[in-house]
Write a structure and sequence with these properties.
Blueprint: H1 18-43, E1 45-49, E2 64-68, H2 71-74, E3 82-86, H3 95-100, E4 109-116, E5 121-125, E6 128-132, E7 140-142, E8 159-161, E9 166-170, H4 180-183, E10 186-187, E11 191-200, E12 206-207, E13 216-218
Antiparallel strand pairs: 1-2, 2-11, 3-4, 3-11, 4-9, 5-6, 5-8, 6-7, 7-13, 9-10, 11-12
Length: 220
């Protein structure tokens, strides 16, 4: 004969009512959704809104962009890529460093185009960009059809040789852009990612907006 005491519920916990169980399930769902959103935001893709004229007429104020944060972890930036990056040499791209410094505001970010690649020499002479590398030791003039005639100008006379994981970037509106001609090279560590999609304005909805294809002309 079984002992009736052994069949009783001896747990001190009271069973949850349906409403309490539903609230607990919803809380876990919210936490999961928030965690997933933060993971995507910091490690997969991030939204940015263009502010400023440095990339006109390729990008305008209030263009809403999605930046791919994964590709450059497995591949290298290419010439012509439009990228978003933290203000160079500030350490703002390091989440750990920002937490140590108790910096809670968003890092300062810029949008520019990759012009010079690691190991290359870049010379800015007037409106011409001359690239020298192992494939073109004599140098070649970069053909840049994305620049409007009225957007040429700005600092000139820059000459720089890039080391490993160093890039030379410039805005498409050369007349007003503060870029590698002003503050120097861009370390790869400060690159957030490539502009993948333009979502707004809807009339300009596109994948890899501003993507460039170059022809290489021998320098004179």
């Amino acid at each position: 004969m079984s002992d009736p005491l052994m069949q009783e519920n001896t747990s001190m916990d009271q069973p949850l009512s349906p409403s309490e169980a539903g609230a607990k399930g919803f809380a876990w769902y919210v936490l999961f959704a928030l965690g997933l959103a933060l993971f995507i935001r910091f490690f997969v893709a991030a939204p940015y809104v263009v502010s400023g004229a440095s990339m006109e007429h390729t990008f305008d104020n209030w263009d809403y962009l999605i930046t791919d944060r994964i590709s450059y972890r497995i591949s290298e930036p290419e010439r012509g890529d439009v990228i978003v990056f933290c203000l160079p040499n500030t350490g703002e791209c390091s989440l750990v460093q920002r937490l140590i410094n108790k910096e809670w505001t968003a890092p300062r970010t810029l949008i520019k185009r990759v012009i010079g690649l690691p190991g290359e020499s870049v010379s800015v002479e007037g409106n011409s960009i001359i690239i020298t590398n192992s494939a073109h030791p004599e140098g070649f003039i970069l053909d840049e059809p994305y620049i409007s005639a009225e957007n040429y100008g700005g600092p000139s006379g820059t000459q720089v040789t890039l080391g490993d994981e160093e890039y030379f970037v410039m805005g498409d509106n050369r007349r007003v852009s503060s870029d590698s001609r002003v503050w120097g090279i861009l370390p790869k560590a400060d690159i957030i990612g490539q502009v993948l999609v333009r979502l707004f304005p809807l009339s300009s909805l596109s994948i890899l907006p501003g993507d460039a294809v170059y022809s290489e002309n021998a320098a004179q």
